[in-house]
Amino acid sequence: MIQTLCYYLSEHPLIVGFRWKHSQSWGNTWVFLFTSIAAYVIFSVFLHLFLLLLFRHRRPLPLGPIPAVHSLSMALISFTIFAGILLSAAAEIRDTRWFWRRYKTTPFQWLLCFPLGTRPSGRVFFWSYIFYLSRFLHTFRTFFTIIRRRKLSFFQLFNHSILIFMSFLWLEFSQSFQVLAIILTTSIYSVVYGYRFWTAVGLPSKCFHFVNHCQVVLLGCNVVCHVGVLLLHFLKGGCNGIGAWVLNSVLNGAILFLFLNFYVKLHLEKRKIGVTKGSETLDSVKDKDN
């Protein structure tokens, strides 16, 4: 059974023979990229305004089991991509070890820094392509938030759009660091969406912001890895797709800034609520004493 799973996740001819080409891969043109992102943003804004006008004084619309099904699907998809790219990376390391010894490159360095001239083909780029397609399914959470909470978040729109854009850049320019980024992201997303499914079906949730803490861990790991890519680029004579990596780093920095701003505001509001409740409790005790 394990051998069968390894075959279908890393040795299948469709995976081994994958090529990122306009004639073979769906959604791999710049026109499709910008059109899909624009359609996502426009539809989200339209849905938000439409619901505000139509259901201004009504409660949020119930979605039933749809969010739970979406969370379970995303958890399974993320775990499949995680297992697939992990096995595919191990297979690539096994098949090209002789090449790395010649250029004094270690497997960990390859995960951070592709050699110059790397083309988007083979096992790891197949799973990078599947990861890129899964980003479109990820955007459905925006629609769930709008329908259930009547809330449209700029950070959510920006974050989802940038994730799609960066995933496209990884494939288009054979960008370095993408294998490790996908491994980290899908491992965290498997846990996050599993937790969301857990709470969506009515099971008890933790008192702290579990999802936010997971995102902090992911962003922190990305920052450390980006520093490693920069060091290897200057020490090893260059990494493939470094121009796209620079743009990727700028966009990641913007996401990190927006998220930390949201994270700090969330904790300040929580602390303010705690102080308010504490003062109210103290006042009630004083009233009883009087």
From TrEMBL:
Could you tell me the keywords of this UniProt record?
A: Fatty acid biosynthesis, Fatty acid metabolism, Lipid biosynthesis, Lipid metabolism, Membrane, Transferase, Transmembrane, Transmembrane helix
Give TM segment ranges.
Answer: 30-55, 67-91, 152-171, 177-195, 216-236, 242-264
- GO MF term list: fatty acid elongase activity
Membrane topology, from the record:
Multi-pass membrane protein
Cellular component per GO, a single term? endoplasmic reticulum membrane
Which GO terms fall under biological process for this protein?
fatty acid elongation, monounsaturated fatty acid; fatty acid elongation, polyunsaturated fatty acid; fatty acid elongation, saturated fatty acid; sphingolipid biosynthetic process; very long-chain fatty acid biosynthetic process
- What Pfam families does the record tag this protein with? ELO
Q: Where in the cell is it found?
A: Membrane
**PANTHER family per the record?**
ELONGATION OF FATTY ACIDS PROTEIN 3-LIKE, FATTY ACID ACYL TRANSFERASE-RELATED
The name on file for this protein is Elongation of fatty acids protein 3-like protein
Q: Which organism is it from?
A: Nicotiana attenuata (Coyote tobacco)
From the UniProt record, report the name of the gene that encodes this protein.
HOS3_7
